[in-house]
Amino acid sequence: MSVFVGVDQVEKVFNLTGGGEYIALKGIDLEIKKGEFVSLIGHSGCGKSTLLNMIAGLDLPTEGVVTLEGKRITQPGPDRMVVFQNYSLLPWRSVRENIALAVNSVMPDLSVPERRKIVDRHIDMVGLRPHAEKSPTMLSGGQKQRVAIARALAIRPKLLLLDEPFGALDALTRGNLQEQLMKICEENQVTAVMVTHDVDEAVLLSDRIVMLTNGPASKIGSILEVDIPRPRKRMEVVEHPSYYSLRSEMIYFLNQQKRIKKIRARKTTVVAKHGLEKVNLEIGFVPLTACAPLAVAKEKGFFAKHGLDEVNLVRETSWRGIVDGIGGGYLDAAQMPSGMPMWLTLGGNENKPLPVVTSLTMTRNGNAITLSKDFYEHGIQDLYDFRNYLLHTRDRQHIMGVVHPSSMHNLLLRYWLAAGGIDPDSDVHIQTLPPAQMVADLQNGSIDGFCVGEPWNIRAAYEGIGITAASDLDVWLGHPGKVLGVREDWAAVYPNSFIALTKALLEACYYCSLPENTEEIRQILASKDYVSVPTEYIQIEPNQTSCDLDHPVGDYAHHQFYADSAINRPSRTEQIWIVTQLARWGHTPFPRNWVEIVERVCRVSTFSTAARELGMDISYVRKPIQFFDGTPFNADDPISYLNGLQIKHDFAVADVILDAHRIAA
C-alpha cells in the first residue's frame, strides 16, 4: 500500500525568548498508510502535539518535509481536520449550526438540502439527534466532544487528527466515545493520527503506536504493531494474547523515559579526582541476591575506599533496562548476566554490535529451574519426568520463563531441556519476563516454570507455588552468574576508574564470601533499596537444602562470591561456550573472528591489575567445563562442538565487525 502521510527527516526548532534555541523534534521519519489509525504516545514535552500540528499544517518543520498523498503540507486545509481536547465549539451556535458552519465553508457548491443531509447524517452518527438544537453550554463534556468529532468528519477529511480528544472525560463517557470513534473510522475508512497519554486507549484504537522519547531532540524510540483483529470490542481486546504484552511494552518505555530524565537531571560533568578520570558513576543492577557485591561495595564504603566518591546504584526492574542504560550511555557500568557482554558485542540487541567488556565475574551459581506445583502433583520431579509429560501433552502449550536471551538462565534452561531430548523452541515456549514477575506469573498459571536467580526459586517453594526441578548442582556447578560490564569505549576513556571499580567490587566479593558477614549481607539485600523481600528469602550460605513442597530434590548451589581470585577472573573458555550457545539457538551468529571477539570482551588485564593491587593471588589454571550430561566442551574447536550437538538451530557463521562507539551524553 502506498504512503498516504509521509514525515521525512523532520526537525523542529523553537527560538527561545532572550536568545537560544530549543530542539523539540529531531530526525522524525514516519509513513502512514491510507485507512490506518496511528497513535503518538510519550511523556509531556516529547513533541507529540508539535508533530500533529505539522501534519495538520498549523506549524511547519524547521528541517525536513511532511506530505499528504505526495504533496507537501505547507498550510492548514479542509483535507485535514483536528479534534482538540477543548472541543473548540462556538457557544452561541447550536450543535447543528456548529457542524453546518464547517460543511457550508468547505462544500459551498452543494445545494442547501444536500448540505443539510450531510449535517443530519453526522449528528446521527454520533448519537446527538435529541440534542441537535441545543447550544454547547447545555451539553456534557462527552456530548461536546462528539460534536467536535461529527464536525471534523462531516467535511469528509482525508485525514483526522486527534489531540487527546478524550483526556478530560470520565471513564464511562470516554469508553463509549472510543467505541463510536472506532466504528466510524472502520465504516468510513478514515485515516487517523491521535495524540494520547492513555496506553489502554492506544492499544484499543490503533493499528500502530509510535512512542516518542523525551525532549529535547525527541525522536521515535519504537513503533509497536497492534496485531489485534478488527472490529474490536473493549472487553474482547483485554482477552487477546497480545494485549498485555503491548501494554507492558508501552509502560516499560514510558517508565524508562522517566528514569532517563531523572538520571540526566542528576548527572553532572565528569568529576576527576584521586588520579581517576571519573569518580561519579551511575551503576545499574537488577534486584536479585546476586547484586550483593554492588550493595556491599556501596554500603560498606568500598567504592569510596578506592576513590569512587560519587557512586549511584540504579535499580532496574529488568535486564532490558540494563541494556538500554548501557546502550544509551546513561549508565557507566552495570551488573549483567554473564552472557550479556558477548550478546551485546555480537549484535544481539537489534542486530547492532555494541562492544562491551567485562573485567570481573561477581557471582557464580545461584540459579535454579522451578516448575509449577501442578507438575509435582503429576509425579514430575526431574528432567526425564518432564520430557515424558511433554510427550503426552502435545495438545497444550507449555511456557517457561527466562529473564533475558543472553542470561545464563536462558542458556542453562535450554541446555538442560536439550540434554533431555526436549527442543526448547518447539516442545515448549520460552518467554522473557522480569525476574520479580516470575513467581506471580507461576501462581496465576500464565507460565509453567522458569529459570531464574535467587531469591525467586526459594520464594516459589516457600509459598507453595513451585518445586525446584534442577539447581546449579544438577546442570553446571560453578557456572558464571553475574559479571561487571562496561562499554568498550568507556573502558578506553576511563581506564583507571575501570580498575578502581573492579577493585572495589572484587573486595566486596571477598567480603560477601566470609561466613561472619552473612547475616549483615542478608539484612542489606532484603532492604527496599535492593531486593526488597523478607530476609528468609535471602539465602547466601553454600549448599543450603533445597526447599520444595514435600522433600528436598537436591541442594541449592548458592552464590559463590569468592573462594580465591581465580573464580572472579573473566574466563575466555566460558565466554567461548557462551558464544556457541548464542549461535546454537539463533540469538547471534557465530563469529568467524571468535578469537579476537573473546579477547576483546574478556578484560583479563584489568582484572589482574586490580587483584594484584589488592594483594590477591592471580595465578590461574584453566579448568574444563563439566556439564551434568557428560558432554565435553573443546574451547579450541567450538565449531566442531556446535556441529556435534543434536538439538540446535541452523546457525550462521560471519565476521563480526566492531566499530568504535562514541559514549552517549
Question: What key attributes describe this structure?
Answer:
single chain; 25 helices; 2 domains; Rossmann fold; D-Maltodextrin-Binding Protein, domain 2; 665 residues
Question: How are the elements arranged and paired?
Answer:
Blueprint lengths: L2 E13 L5 E13 L3 E5 L6 H9 L6 E6 L2 E2 L7 E5 L10 H12 L5 H14 L15 H14 L4 E5 L7 H18 L2 E6 L2 H7 L2 E5 L7 E6 L8 H6 L3 H24 L13 E6 L6 H8 L2 H4 L4 E6 L3 H10 L4 E5 L2 H6 L10 E9 L2 E6 H5 L5 H10 L6 E4 L5 H12 L9 E4 L5 H7 L4 E5 L2 H7 L3 E6 H4 L4 E8 H6 L1 H19 L4 H9 L45 H13 L5 E2 L2 H8 L2 H10 L24 H7 L8 E2 L11
Parallel strand pairs: 3-8, 3-9, 6-7, 7-8, 11-12, 11-13, 16-17, 16-18, 21-22
Antiparallel strand pairs: 1-2, 1-4, 4-5, 9-10, 13-20, 14-20, 15-18, 15-19
Helix pairs in contact: 2-3, 2-4, 3-4, 4-5, 9-20, 20-24, 22-23, 22-25
Explain how this protein is built.
By secondary structure, the chain is an alpha/beta fold. It folds into two domains: 3-257, P-loop containing nucleotide triphosphate hydrolases (Rossmann fold), CATH 3.40.50; 267-665, Periplasmic binding protein-like II (D-Maltodextrin-Binding Protein, domain 2), CATH 3.40.190.10. The chain has a six-stranded mixed beta sheet with strand order 6-7-8-3-9-10, with helices on both faces. A five-stranded mixed beta sheet has the order 12-11-13-20-14, sandwiched between helices. Helix 4 packs parallel to helix 5 and helix 22 packs across helix 25 (638-644). It is elongated. It starts with a strand and ends in an 11-residue tail after the last strand. The model is unreliable at 543-555 (pLDDT under 50).
